[in-house]
Design goal:
Number of helices: 6
Distance between the termini: 14 Å
Largest sheet: none
Radius of gyration: 14 Å
Low-confidence stretches: 91-95
Order of helices and strands: HHHHHH
Shape: globular
């Protein structure tokens, strides 16, 4: 959607959503359960970001962490969380490729 915003008159509003929350307690394969467990860290951080800095900051955080996790193949760990939080701040977008 962020790419669409560049060429169309649309605006994306980000809200905290987590597959870890949605699939918690469901009967899923073991490898998926592992992924669900790893997803709790990012969702807790996203909730804190939204509570402390508002929805615009969630957009920046999701973009930063999503690019690093999905596009670059990085695993969820403390260094990824810290880097994404730094990059998620508006002043950090230029140096983080945003």
């Amino acid at each position: 959607m962020l790419e669409v915003e560049k060429v169309r008159d649309v605006e994306t509003h980000f809200h905290v959503m987590s597959l870890s929350v949605l699939n918690s307690g469901k009967d899923v394969p073991d490898e998926y359960k592992d992924m669900i467990e790893r997803g709790w860290g990012p969702v807790r951080i996203a909730i804190a970001v939204e509570q402390q800095h508002g929805p615009a900051a969630v957009r920046e955080f999701y973009t930063a962490i999503g690019t690093r996790h999905h596009n670059e193949g990085r695993e969820f760990d403390t260094s990824l969380f810290e880097e994404s939080l730094r990059c998620g701040r508006s002043s950090g977008r230029a140096r983080c490729g945003g």
